[in-house]
Design goal:
The protein is 45% helix and 21% strand. The chain is built from eleven helices and twelve strands. The protein has helices spanning 10-21, 33-42, 81-91, 107-115, 156-167, 178-199, 210-229, 239-249, 256-263, 273-283, 288-302, and strands spanning 2-6, 25-29, 44-48, 51-55, 58-60, 69-74, 92-100, 120-125, 128-133, 136-141, 145-149, 172-174. The strands form two sheets. Strands 5-2-1-6-7-8-11-12 form an eight-stranded mixed sheet, sandwiched between helices. A four-stranded mixed sheet has the order 4-3-10-9. α6 runs antiparallel to α7 (210-229) and α6 packs across α11. Mean pLDDT is 94; it is low at 304-310.
């Protein structure tokens, strides 16, 4: 299977590296020249618990010459989803599909507008990674990846993708209820991302003090009320305990939102906590905690003094 990963930040680089190590035909695509140049010249430095490993990986700045591919995996920020979907559509060969492993709510629907819902796979992953610099990432947490079709029943292609990712060291299962899947990850991100970004904490630190555990619980409990109002059955019984468990399991990881804040980049707050607020308004569910977290992160984004790495 020939693949392209569009968005070679921490997670795109991680998936690209593991697929490349497994001998799969994969190319990562990104818009950061220094990162692409470093991967091309010296390989991707992948930091694991056992030490650093250099992975040779194809990396390019544009998609010219890559088509046709069987699978495009999207790891771009939500603000770039539409543009990435257009690029993905131009890459797909006959029978090809796009898999979104992005954070937040609504990315799959945006992609479907370009490539058709029947050609979209939706996924969530409990893997974690941090971008350390050009050509360098740290693998910060491990867990299962779940995927399923946005439209139509899961099929042999889904099973093939899951088997390929699992063989590459990224355990993946096919999930029959993708709506539950997306909302389940959204609730987890709602409890972790904004708080880690605002407080400059690694994921695991949220579970270490009573105050952060309480803030996490308040944000998650609101999100659960919205999910229930939307008719969504979450894929776990105790949402607060689940989010705390994920925080601990990815304890050394910096959330993607914290990484964005430290780089002075736009965050995905609008499709995470902001999505809870919008859905709450639509469904008549009050979300004061998530509204406050959303406004705080947006205010932080707007501070010119924050527009540099720390």
């Amino acid at each position: 299977m020939k693949m392209a990963v569009i968005g070679a930040g921490a997670m795109g680089s991680l998936f690209g590296a593991y697929l490349a190590k497994a001998g799969e035909a994969v190319t990562v695509v990104d818009i950061w020249p220094d990162h692409v140049a470093a991967i091309r010249s010296q390989g991707l430095v992948l930091g694991e618990e056992t030490g650093d490993e250099v992975v040779r990986l194809d990396a390019v700045l544009g998609t010219d010459g890559l088509a046709p591919v069987d699978l495009v995996i999207l790891f771009v920020k939500a603000t770039a989803t539409r543009q990435a979907a257009i690029a993905a559509a131009a890459l797909l060969g006959p029978g090809g599909r796009v898999l979104t492993l992005q954070n937040g709510l609504g990315n799959a629907e945006v992609i479907a507008e370009t490539v058709g819902g029947e050609n979209v796979l939706v996924g969530t992953t409990a893997q974690g990674a941090t971008l350390l610099g050009p050509g360098r990432i740290r693998h910060g947490g491990r867990g299962e990846t779940h995927i399923g079709r946005l439209s139509g029943d899961n099929d042999a292609f889904c099973a093939q993708v899951a088997a390929m990712l699992s063989k590459a060291g990224l355990p993946t299962v096919v999930e029959p209820d993708v709506r539950s899947l997306v909302w389940g990850k959204l609730v987890i991100n709602t409890g972790i991302n904004a708080l880690t970004a605002l407080l400059r904490l690694r994921n695991g630190q949220l579970a270490e003090q009573a105050e952060t555990r309480q803030l996490l619980a308040l944000a998650v409990e609101e999100a659960v009320l919205v999910a229930r109002a939307a008719g969504v059955q979450l894929p776990y019984e105790d949402p607060v305990e689940k989010v705390l468990a994920v925080a601990v399991a990815t304890g050394q990881n910096q959330s993607s939102m914290l990484q964005d804040v430290l780089r002075g980049s736009p965050t995905e707050i609008a499709v995470i906590n902001g999505a809870i607020v919008r859905e709450g308004e639509r469904l008549g569910v009050a979300t004061p905690v998530n509204r406050t977290l959303t406004l705080l992160v947006q205010a932080l984004e707007n501070q010119s003094g924050n527009r540099k790495a720390e």
